[in-house]
Amino acid sequence: MSHADYQTLIKLFDDCFYADYRTRLVAGDDEPLYRAASTPDADHEIVFAHGFFASALHEIAHWCIAGAARRQLEDYGYWYEPDGRDAAQQAQFEQVERKPQALEWLFSLCAGVPFQVSVDNLNGAAVDRQAFTAAVQQQLVTYLTDGLPPRAERFARALAQTYQQPWPSARQLLNYQGVA
């Protein structure tokens, strides 16, 4: 099974969540976006960028964290400050992104694919990628030690089973060198 096959992710997400949440994972042509259902009988959509496997994992991570009220709002009602953020905006971005990127890392481990944090600020303030990676890693260790959000755990376990990967432990993650 190819790890670059986003169709597998779409089916797996559908199997895990469609019946309970009426949410579909959709390959998009442009930027990622969460579309809340526009009518009571419509589906919610998690649109990931350009068919990229990593983008799908990242967008699923955001969905796994969003509460019921946020899942009724386009893009969960969050702001997004594009590339070119100043130091304060970047610090806020990293604070908000720590949890979803920790889940994306878990999903990557469970799918057997490399993970790399996204600082998403190539034209802005200097970024300490190593410090952000350490913060994301610590968040994942906390999740593995104290418990994962339920939807995230359901999806991660389905990934691990599908891709025949072992369930990661906090101890293994502390020594993990597989970050790209």
UniProtKB/TrEMBL annotation:
<protein>
    <submittedName>
        <fullName>Elongation factor P hydroxylase</fullName>
    </submittedName>
</protein>
<keyword id="KW-0251">Elongation factor</keyword>
<dbReference type="InterPro" id="IPR007411">
    <property type="entry name" value="EpmC"/>
</dbReference>
<dbReference type="Pfam" id="PF04315">
    <property type="entry name" value="EpmC"/>
</dbReference>
<dbReference type="GO" id="GO:0003746">
    <property type="term" value="F:translation elongation factor activity"/>
</dbReference>
<keyword id="KW-0648">Protein biosynthesis</keyword>
